[in-house]
Specification:
Number of strands: 0
Order of helices and strands: HHHHHHH
Distance between the termini: 47 Å
CATH topology of the domain at 31-161: Arp2/3 complex 21 kDa subunit ARPC3
Number of helices: 7
CATH class of the domain at 31-161: Mainly Alpha
Structural class: mainly alpha
Radius of gyration: 21 Å
Helix content: 55-70%
CATH architecture of the domain at 31-161: Orthogonal Bundle
Amino acid sequence: MIASGGAVARVAALVLVGCILQISWLAAVRIFGATPDLIPLLVGAVALYAGAVSAATTGFFCGLVIDLVLATTPGASSLVLTLVGYGLGRYRDLRDPGHGLVPIPIAAVATAAYGIGLALVSFLLDRTSISGLAFQEVLLTVVLNAVVALPVFALVRRVLGPVLTVDPSEPRRRRRTVREKGPIGLRGLEV
């Protein structure tokens, strides 16, 4: 991603709108006993399109907003979302994410890592008890987020498109150089 004021403004707008939608509207929506979680999808999309550092920064600020607004343990969501964003961004840096269905597994991994990581950090910091129902809700949230991943990732791609240096969703094409014909053993030699 091009590090500019426009890029920062676009990511900040995504964080603000995503957190407001999650807290005000999506928290009240229950489907099969779970709620879709927009925040790990947002961090995963930024990781896929912008890379590790941008995703870690986005994860930190998303977690900070969520922690401050909901008055939960300060830093718990920030820590987990920073690690999720950095990990998925490193995956994007090391692998070719050119396939059109890559957002589905990225959304599933981001949601699972966020849910399990937040439960673990809450257990370690607050000494809260964790039941099997929490993991059932995480599993249902993973399924819901995998279903809504493609439109959310497409929206984030559209918002971040002008500031991306390389769009990883576009297939990479190899340039082939045409070799001149010649005897089998003499290709490439000036004869």
